[in-house]
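Thread: quick sanity check before group meeting

JM: Hey all, I'm pulling together slides for Thursday and realized we never actually wrote out the predicted structure for the chain we discussed last week. Dropping the sequence here so it's in one place. If anyone has concerns about the input, flag it before I start.
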Amino acid sequence: MNHDLHSGDDELRAWSNRTVVDTDGRVAICFGLAATLYFRDGHVEKQRRAVLDCFNDYESVAGNHLTWHGVGARSGRMSRVDALRSRDMSPYLLSEKWTEPAAHEHAWAFNWHGGVNRDDASPWRIYAYGSPRRYAELDGSLSFLQVSVPLGGPTDAYRRFAQLVFRFCERLSPLHGYGGATLLISHDRGLAQVHASEAAGFAARYPGLEIDRPMSHKLATLNAIKGAGWITVLSQAFVERMGGLQGLRDRLAETVSVTPFATGVLLVAGNAPEVGDLNRRLDTPHLRDLSRALKPIRITEHPALYTEGRFAEASEYSAWLARFDGQ
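JM (edit): ok, ran it. Output follows.
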């Protein structure tokens, strides 16, 4: 592999226009600059307030790009954003119902996106899930927040996205997280399943592309991180497992910036994400080196992502997680 070649700005801009569309015109797959943060105690009011602050921060950036929204962990119904009287999420996230005994069995969730159709995958998306109190207290079940914007644009746009994620970290105190150029698939399960083989095909060719299904990953990453990304977030517990802040710095290349926050650190590997391309021998040197450095705290096993296709086998997705180890 030619280690002198890597994904540049032109490569990233090209990804912003790539989509997979079904016969009904629905966007099954698109690509964006995304980050996912996993945190504990999602049922607690402090964390729900932090998520609300993150939503408001993102909404101020996304503005009119958001066209559909759904609220509720069991509600698959998406409604038009332009029909809302208010975009205020506080009545839902800060409702007193979450403190009632009956709520111990229930999760909260919301999903806002910028697709033309209600089921479209979109690079404009904010998606969150709070585990029920029962499971959080029983086995430490994780909650998550995923946010994405379009790829492409000047390097300054990537810096601003990293700053947005850093602000989220200061509010949420996440256990871990990651971000970068990401394959985003429709929230409609049927549509996602139909195109699972295409998602796996992108993963096989482009090693830097993040394949992200947070509802599945939150179960597998209770005690270890999913892997390294252009952005990688580590709580203090993981920093200590790496030998403390200095021990972590000693393992990292000079191209990785390390920005501490109150409960952890945010790592950024280079000025912009790498995607790579095995067919064209485009390397992802920053991701490769960071992944190998963080191997001691990375998961080694993960359940299957889909019921069909390559990632229907748990061993295949686990192998994908370890894709940089042999390089």
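AS: nice. The first helix runs from residue 9 to 15. Residues 9-321 form one domain.
JM: adding both to the slides.
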